[in-house]
Amino acid sequence: RRQWRSEGRPPPPPAGSSTRMERILKSARESGSLNLSNRSLSSEVPGEVYNNLDTGSLDDKWWEGVDLQKLILAHNNLEVLREDLRNLSSLVVLNISHNQLSSVPAAIGDLPLLKSLDVSFNQIKFIPEEVGLATALVKVDFSNNCLTELPASLGRCLNLSELKASNNNISRLPDELAGCCKLSKFDLEGNKLVLLPENMFTSWTLLTELNAAKNQLTTIPASIGALSKLVRMDLHQNKITSIPSSIKGCSSLAEFYMGNNLLSTIPDDIGMLSKLGTLDLHSNQMKEYPVGACKLKLSFLDLSNNALSGLPPELGTMTTLRKLLLSGNPMRALRSSLVSGPTSTLMKYLRSRLSSEEEEHQGLEPPQQKLTRFLQQDDYLYLQRS
Fold first, then answer.
1. Four-way CATH pick for 1-187: 2.40.170.20, 3.80.10.10, 2.60.40.10, 1.10.10.10
2. Looking at the record, which segments are called Disordered (predicted)?
3. How far is the CA of 359 from the CAs of 291, 312, 332, 365, 385, in angstroms?
4. Are 303 and 286 spatial neighbours (Cβ–Cβ below 8 Å)?
5. Angle 196-201-202 (CA atoms, 0-180°, nearest 5)?
6. If we measure between CA atoms, which residue out of 318, 316, 315 comes closest to residue 274?
């Protein structure tokens, strides 16, 4: 006759009650990985999970099993995650995204090996400071919840490389986050941030991706220039009025999104970003595109919905440009067919303008060329020189 295991282990289930869930748990005991996503779990996690998959049956050969290292509970209807979570001391990956959780247990700090934590798409209003005790954390996703702040204790997670908290109600960032000196990806899109602290960028020198779009930012800190490894920066749909000249320090920047802000111009120093390929400046208040920025080697440039009346001829020297968007500008120096036509045609036209101006400056402009330039500037005729 089977004997129940001692030392607080749960009793075995009734005879003949072997279910699919039990088979899943048994398999997880062998692999150390349990995936219960899309299982229509409601309210709570099965008790066996908190007991490191102990079903109470001697048939499980529990002495041959391994501790749970990966737990996926995504896409269920869970409302509570118990403090018993601390029993899973070997847990490395925890994914409880897409549930109905309103809180995270303080026991999260008792998981010394936890590297990946995903609690996105819940109804969580507060992350306990104990999360900072899980110092092995590398990836954290708090996105799509109801958070108003991030725990300052995250600054103790010195190995943290990815932090996502998009689509919350966060209005400020704790200064302690500067301690996450290995951070490479930071995503706070869709919050209520009014400021990006200066000290963070001087510490986050390994940052490659920064997304703070759809916030209420008015400035970009000068310390942005410390991010020499930054490849992608998205700050669209804020209230930013200027870009600091220190942007030239972002020498690895390849994509820069600044659409839907309040820019009236951009600094000439941006022309020093030799790797920049995409520059999105749509829906700002720009009245001119600076000559210094014509040194860029862009493939995509969006200047639509600004206040531009013309373009510098020097832009025609940007031979890498494949797409230039200009709609929604009061262009008076360019015919509408050039504005809406192929980018290559417009670029050729700008180069012809540049050549004309250079010859005029040297006093070598022939009468016919002068007439051509006059007609071009008045937007009556475009004579293509052979």
1. 3.80.10.10
2. 1-23
3. 18, 16, 24, 5, 14
4. yes
5. 135
6. 318
* Cβ pair 131, 154 in contact under 8 A: yes
Q: What is the pTM of this model?
A: 0.84
From residue 258, alpha-carbon distances to 29, 85, 212, 242 in Å are 50, 43, 11, 10
* Angle separating helix axes 343-361 and 367-377, nearest 10 degrees: 130
CATH 3.80.10.10 corresponds to the domain 193-332:
yes
DSSP string, 90-135: T--EEE--SS------GGGGG-TT--EEE--SS------GGGGG-T
Would the CATH topology of 1-187 be identical to that of 193-332?
A: yes
Residue ranges of the domains in the chain?
A: 1-187, 193-332, 347-386
Give tens-digit pLDDT for 35-70: 999 988 887 888 888 886 665 554 555 545 788 999
Strand partners, 4: none
